[in-house]
Amino acid sequence: MIELRHLQYFRALAETLHFGRAAERLHISQPPLSRQIALLEEELGVKLFDRSRRHVELTDAGQRFYLDTGTVFAAFEQAKRNALAAARGAAGELSVGFMMSTAYSVTPAITRRYAAQYPQVNLKLTETLPMDLAQDISSGNKDVAIMYRPQDCSGLETVTIYREEMTVVLPPGHRLLEQPLIDPRDLAAETFIIVPRRIAPALHDMIVNYCLQHGVTPNVGLEINMQQTIVNLVGEGLGIAIVPRSMRNMRLTTTTFRPLVAPPVIEVVAVWKADNHNPCIATFVESAMRASEEATLQDQ
Questions:
Q1: What residues does the HTH lysR-type domain cover (predicted)?
Q2: Which domains does the chain have, with CATH numbers?
């Protein structure tokens, strides 16, 4: 059976055309080298070298074999680099789920940065409701999720990658449009459009608790799953909403965003299963944090 070392012996001799110098390069004695070359020729069924007492020359078959084994070794070196890259999380496959609202904040920047840094990683992105993301991670359907911190983090790892203030979005002609800063107490008589708690408990609870802390019990008129749909419905005059500040990036002409007094801050986290050993997770999380830092600086 031909082994990689036989090819190494052959190429050393082909490049030196001298058994003594080839053996020295290979750190072996000359007799074993001669035996291995003879065995290689026997295995191939062709003569690779013409030998005489004074010189060694490659045959036509030997010249062809030398060219082809160069391709073999190039492929082997590439295989070693690929294995190392995979072990370091620079190659492979990574499945990422994200909330649609983060498409207006950090997900685009994270995706661009990671794809540029790790082009050998097959990155699969899927938009998913917050309520389903943690389950996707626990079940192994996704490697990483970009989401609000789940209520139950047992068996999960989380890292905060982005923080943003909440803001109020108002419809056309609203009575509070002239106010540069909105006191939550001024929203007591308003109809709220809010995400259902079963869909995004962290976000729902933050909004309700913020209102309650300021003596306001929110009058919930509509419960809507998607933040962009909530903003659209506000633009249609169906109520007001407290949403992440990044939703301003929808740039609707029918809505106006105003800052809140002592606004609550929502955290977006990267979540993955503790026993998921995909090495691409670590590179993704590191890249996500860097991209988020850059996005935060640009937003200031």
A1: 2-59
A2: 4-87 (1.10.10.10), 99-300 (3.40.190.290)
